[in-house]
Amino acid sequence: MKPVRCDRTPAWGELKTCFEAGGRNFDLRGAFARDLHRFEAFSQDAPHVFADLSKNLIDAGSQALLLALARQCGLEQQRDAMFAGQRINRTENRAVMHFLLRNPPSAQYVPAQAAIDKVADAQAEVEVTLDAMLAYAEQVRADEAITDIVNIGIGGSDLGPQMAALALAEFATAGKRIHFVSNIDGNELAGVLKQLTPAGTLFLVASKTFTTTETMTNAHSARAWFEAQGGQDIARHFAALTTNVAAANDFGITTTFGFWDWVGGRYSLWSAIGLPVAIAIGAAGFREFLAGAHAMDEHFRTAALEGNLPVRLGLLDVWYRNFHGFSSRSIAPYSSALRRWPAYLQQLEMESNGKRVDQDGQPLPFDTSPVLWGEPGTNGQHAYFQMLHQGTTVVPVEFVAVRQAAHAPDDLPGHHGKLLANALAQAQALMRGKTDAGGHRDFPGNRPSTFLLLERLTPASLGALIALQEHRVFVSGAIWGINSFDQWGVELGKVLAKDIEPRLLSGDVSGLDGSTAGLLQKLRFSPS
Ligand code: F6P
């Protein structure tokens, strides 16, 4: 079945009618009062993650229509095409197989060879590379002389490993500091270099393409610093994580770990790009991380749509974006270890689904990716939650809470209970509201939220949580009929920056618009 764009299905029109008939004015409080089993009906167990969807503006009718929409769009066939290794990234003519990176050799599922070119070979290469990378991670962990690991990368070569390394700090080996340098602003690299000695440092140059300006600039400067400080042995102190091993070799790095063009940058944490995480938590921990993600892959691949958590979340995203018209989602991890979770999700969802044309390049008559934003709880409560509760715009909130504290609860009694109480209370307050005080003190309530719950933040549960988000983004992208796996929108600015950089020195403003010319003249500096 050829995928059908959502707005060309019968279910799309029926959802519009359903929204006008009652969806628009759906009242959560009334829904809970009418249905004592709403929590059970609208919650979902998935590997390592429990999700309460009951505080969302849905009922059995809208959910059934959303599931019909998914079927009419060919979601199952699109999902199966990805798992079969078909070249679903059409504008780059690439397969999308990040799931293969976490497909263990013993997995029941081996992609159907008939459907794919060279998938079996790809799986074999994945295993060889993973073994080599994890052996290297163990070697670095055992090397007492190496005290600092500096990951130089940006976008998917930074956000995923940084988020995961912070999230799993509790599992990290002592005696190794892991730094992340991404910004081309030299202030970031300078701040890290101050803390290092060449003999004690391993630089990981992480770049899928090995051409990204920020990463190449930082890598050249790091090598210049290393040599100027008397550093010896680049092979020992620099490693490259890339699909472009030839470019890494040209740079002078001979210790390399590769991956493949069928791994998108924002989906690459499971590949060699995960090396800093593997160094932190060890080979066994990294395999648990992969196993957690694989469990979620299997859930997404095999569970009926009705009980499939990534599908239910992705459909809710479509319902909110295209029918309720909600333009953003706030991400609220009630876990300081997950403090980079919102930033990580921003790239995952907004770079994947921030698209204005369909797979055939035709402009879309409906909206796609919402804006994702947020901070960890409880900090966000003291910043922007005011707007979430009483602002004029409804923003669905996605909470993440972890039942067991990462710290020893007896050492710091009371903290975790207060943290969890706040997460529950905020979700409750958003829904319940308060209308007895009048005026400034009234809360309208009926504001939707999703609550994701982990028993404990472990490599496995984090792996599952991330894979859940990857697949949920796949679902909304497939319904919208867009290519979630390219990112042409980042190119124009890169090209223009190359034109502007020499003009900052020369002062040449010919051909520039008045604003860019005026700003350039103010920003000019002398060469140093
Ligand atoms: O500019 C966007 C982007 O291409 C992202 O998709 C990617 O994660 C990031 O740049 C870094 O790319 P690379 O890993 O090739 O350096």
Could you walk me through the main structural features you see in this protein, from its secondary elements to its overall organization?
- This protein is an alpha/beta fold.
- It folds into three domains: 6-72 and 303-486, Glucose-6-phosphate isomerase like protein, domain 1 (Rossmann fold, 3-Layer(aba) Sandwich), CATH 3.40.50.10490; 110-279, Rossmann fold (3-Layer(aba) Sandwich); 489-523, no CATH class.
- The protein contains 19 helices and eleven strands.
- It has helices spanning 10-23, 28-34, 38-41, 60-72, 75-83, 119-142, 159-167, 186-193, 213-228, 234-237, 245-251, 275-302, 309-324, 341-353, 385-390, 415-432, 459-480, 491-506, 514-523; strands at residues 43-46, 49-52, 148-152, 177-181, 201-206, 238-242, 256-258, 328-334, 371-374, 397-402, 449-454.
- Strand 6 (238-242), helix 11 and strand 7 form a beta-alpha-beta unit.
- Helix 4 crosses helix 13 and helix 7 (159-167) crosses helix 12.
- The model has no long low-confidence stretch (mean pLDDT 95).
- The protein binds 6-O-phosphono-beta-D-fructofuranose.
List the helices and strands and how they pair.
Blueprint: H1 10-23, H2 28-34, H3 38-41, E1 43-46, E2 49-52, H4 60-72, H5 75-83, H6 119-142, E3 148-152, H7 159-167, E4 177-181, H8 186-193, E5 201-206, H9 213-228, H10 234-237, E6 238-242, H11 245-251, E7 256-258, H12 275-302, H13 309-324, E8 328-334, H14 341-353, E9 371-374, H15 385-390, E10 397-402, H16 415-432, E11 449-454, H17 459-480, H18 491-506, H19 514-523
Parallel strand pairs: 3-4, 3-5, 5-6, 6-7, 8-9, 8-10, 10-11
Antiparallel strand pairs: 1-2, 2-11
Helix pairs in contact: 1-4, 4-13, 6-12, 7-12, 12-17, 13-17, 14-17
